[in-house]
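Q: What does the assembled structure look like for these inputs?
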Amino acid sequence: MPKAGFKSITISESIYDRFYDVFDKNKQELSRKGVNSFAGYITYLLEDVMQKDRTFARYAPKLEKVAVDDDRVVIKDNIKNRIAEVVVQNGELYCLLCEEKDCFHIGFVFSLPDVYEILSSKGIKHTK
Ligand SMILES: [Zn+2]
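A:
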C-alpha cells in the first residue's frame, strides 16, 4: 500500500521499463528541473501533456495547422482570417504575422505534439 496522500497504479512492465530507461538516461538534466525520482518524472510528463492539451483545446477551433516544414509552420487563423507563418529564427520561434516571439500562434505551435517533437529535437523550448 502506498503511504498516506499517495495512490499507486499498475502498468505493464514493458511500459515501465521504457519510461524508466528514458528517466535513467536523462537523470542529470531532469534533476536540474527539480525532478529527482522516477515518480516525479512521470508526474512531470503528465503535467506537461495536460498543459499542452489545455493549450490545444483553447486554440483548436480558432487556429488550424496548414503545413509543417522543417523550420516553418503555417497556421490558418480563423479569427483574423489570416495565414500566420511561424518560423525558426536564431533558435527561437518567430511569428511573421504578429512580428512577435510570443504570440498565441507560437503557443499553438508548441501545443502540436508532432511539431513539439521536432522543436525539442532542435533544442527549441517554449519559454513560458
Ligand atoms: Zn502570431
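The chain has two domains: 13-58, 62-121.
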